[in-house]
Prior knowledge:
The protein is α/β, with parallel strands linked by helices. 44% of the residues lie in helices and 13% in strands.
Amino acid sequence: MLLRLIVAVEPAKFRRRLAELLRRQDLLVDTVEPTGGLVAALHGRAPDLVLVTRSLLAPNPGTTIREISDLPERPGVIVFESDPDEKDRAELLALGCLAVLSGSLADDILSESLDTLIRRHRQEAIDRLSAERPEQRYSLADFVSDSPAMQRFVALARKVVRSDTSVLVLGETGVGKERLARAIHAESPRSSGPFVAVHCAALPEALVESELFGHEAGAFTGATRAHKGYFELAHMGTLLLDEVGEIPPNIQVKLLRVLEESRIRRVGGEKPIPVNVRIIAATNRDVEAEIARDAFRPDLFYRLSVITLGIPPLRERREDIGKLVLAYLEHFRQQTGRSDIAIEPDALDLLVRHDWPGNVRELINAVEQAVLLCSENRITTEDLPRRIVNAVIPESGVSPNAIGFRDLPDELLRMTLPEARAGIVSSFERAYVTRQLQETGGRIGETARRAGINQRHLYDLMRRLGLRKEDFKAPRE
């Protein structure tokens, strides 16, 4: 995290000395001459730490320290005295100062003392930033799988953990893109730094630049205080740009420049600010299709996708579904205190056969619902969400014999059950989607409505199956 320090000390010679000692890449240091009052000089500057001489706290040190500490950023206060006695030091610490230092210390001792205080304050700020999920530990071991596709994915992910290169994570909604980003951060050399996740789709378009790069006081109407952007918050750590495809084109240009120069410029700011951030971008969109329609800059795509990690959807790794169901069943057993809950084999089999358009997130919700609704500590098909049951066992009651399963081909019998199931599902999907597109003349909206899925899911299916809507449109006479 990039900390902003305000040096408000007297005399000017000492102010220049401190500014020189604090000249480091991970600090933004401003010096002020509080001629109109110390607290007034701090308003709008958004400091993390305030360095002040004892004389500037007069006439009421307690009130002044409290007013500084009550600023929105809750800055810490370090007080300098020429020769502080123990009584005065104790009183100032009791009033809320982080430390009381002697201005007569040698440069090396003073620099070491300040480094210790700054490092402690930064770590406390990082801990507050990470407090949203303090109990969770993330690891690439969470993605260990029996699926060959998933094993290849994890092997590639392990190769990029130790580097600082940009990573683009692709995958459908719910596959665990943020969990992967957190796991990469947790196993990287940056693990002691902050992890900051930005959901780009949730940022108001008018505020995207300010949220990413920050702004200075007075930069625009309503900007009464300086504001730290996500790049500053993620300094020396990892920044996840989730749904990066939602960033407006005009901001994409500025983002590209930041990635190339490792410098940001706050909105309304004049000085470039060096930042040291590893970027992980994630999206569920087809980025190359977005580039083709000029919605995403190709140069930004190349910069973000030095390494591309595509998380396979659940339907392409059915070997993992049963294990995931049982793992989350155990999680919710412990959470609800119902340790004797079990799942019936037919209910588990039904979950394994489901395509999971919402992926792991949908699976977690289904298991949680089943745990809450089941009676007699047995999860049956009646406890599962009806949309899942109906998707696997259509209400039309189509018989397996009606779609050619009476006599299985010998080649299927030479496969494992997961391999045979995956092959049949893939063949069925191709035949089903092809027939529906033929019936609708390639109209995506109508085809998705008939199939009972959303248009994005249909596009994903078509891309995986190598189908194009143009091939199904009726020729013009």
